From TrEMBL:
SMART domains: AAA. It comes from the Bacteria. This is ABC transporter ATP-binding protein. It holds the Pfam family ABC_tran. InterPro entries: AAA+_ATPase (IPR003593), ABC_transporter-like_ATP-bd (IPR003439), ABC_transporter_ATP-binding (IPR050763), P-loop_NTPase (IPR027417). PANTHER family: ABC TRANSPORTER ATP-BINDING PROTEIN (PTHR42711). The keyword rRNA processing does not apply.
């Protein structure tokens, strides 16, 4: 493990009984970076986080957290987590919960700072039971960072958060990164994955099927999204440029192709004016969907 590594995972496997869920995963997460794990429902994202936290024991393989064993008392002291099942004592207020969790750590954030970072100041006196789903998420996020951890695991953190709370959380994650902390998050929101992550992992059928920045993943698909204004019918463009499958959306014709030059040549030869022409690499969402489809078919 190098001094820059926050987490190293080698040959990690996990099965629930006879059902394999993760198969031979190996990767390194560097300090001071934000990592996103993408995967369809049931791909094994939560299982991976539980293994990294030491809440589950691997069937095989090694996990090293800041040169310590996952789940050891020393490793736990350096890690904060926001999990999907986050139940708290119902009658304690936001402030009381944070005070309680802060007391478990040797050098926690102040309660005032945690309240501010998670935009919870005006809700500090509300009991957990009285909080809306989004506010409960904000409190769980505050609890994940109250111990001032070196590594933060966030399992679908923005679920149920409104737009402003989500943006506030994004800013806080950016601030954690700027302080050299490592963040690993799972999300189903591609926009969130793209905005936050230095590097993404796509999990499918127990394997990492792609890894890299959002731009790298999109470019690796070698598929472009081409669109231009088209004032006729879908049937008409489909007939004239029949090598590609077209969509027509409010006067904009769109398609995906691996050779945009060939398409544009065909369009110009056919006399298309191609106003508002746009040629972009495949979006992260499209890349994710294509990779998943390929893996399911394999
Ligand atoms: N305690 C368990 N016992 C048996 N099988 C489990 C258990 N927990 C999860 N699984 C199974 O393991 C697989 C991976 O589940 P996991 O929750 O890790 O997926 P996920 O990628 O986090 O899914 P989601 O996006 O829906 O949260 C699923 O098929 C799930 O049914």
């Amino acid at each position: 493990m190098t001094e820059h590594a926050a987490i190293t995972v080698e040959g990690l496997c996990h099965s629930y009984g006879s059902k394999p869920v993760l198969n031979e995963l190996s990767f390194t997460l560097e300090k001071g970076k934000v990592y996103g794990i993408l995967g369809a429902n049931g791909a094994g994202k939560t299982t991976l986080i539980n293994l990294l936290l030491g809440r589950l024991k691997p069937t095989a393989g090694k996990i090293n957290i800041l040169n310590m064993q996952a789940g050891s008392v020393q490793a736990k002291a350096k890690v904060g987590a926001m999990l999907q099942v986050g139940s708290l004592p119902g009658s304690l207020t936001v402030e009381e919960q944070l005070t309680l969790f802060a007391s478990y750590h040797s050098a926690p954030l102040t309660i005032a700072k945690a309240l501010r970072l998670c935009d919870l100041n005006q809700h500090r006196d509300k009991a957990f039971n009285q909080l809306s789903g989004g506010l409960k998420q904000r409190l769980l996020f505050a609890i994940a960072i109250i111990g001032n951890p070196e590594i933060v695991f966030l399992d679908e953190p923005s679920l149920a958060m409104d737009v402003s709370a989500r943006k506030q959380m994004w800013q806080t994650i950016g601030a954690l990164k700027a302080q050299g902390k490592t963040v690993l998050l799972t999300t189903h929101y591609m926009e969130e994955a793209e905005a936050l992550s230095d590097e993404l992992f796509i999990l499918s059928k127990g394997h990492i099927v792609a890894q890299g920045s959002a731009a790298e993943l999109s470019q690796s698909m070698q598929v472009s999204e081409v669109s231009f204004r088209y004032n006729d019918s879908l049937e008409s463009i489909q007939k004239q440029l029949n090598k590609w499958r077209w969509q027509l959306d409010e006067g904009i014709a769109k398609t995906r192709c691996s050779a945009p030059n060939e398409l544009l040549k065909a369009a110009f030869n056919a006399g298309f004016e191609c106003q508002q022409l746009s040629v972009k690499p495949s979006s992260l969402e499209q890349t994710f969907m294509t990779l998943n489809k390929q893996e399911q078919a394999a």
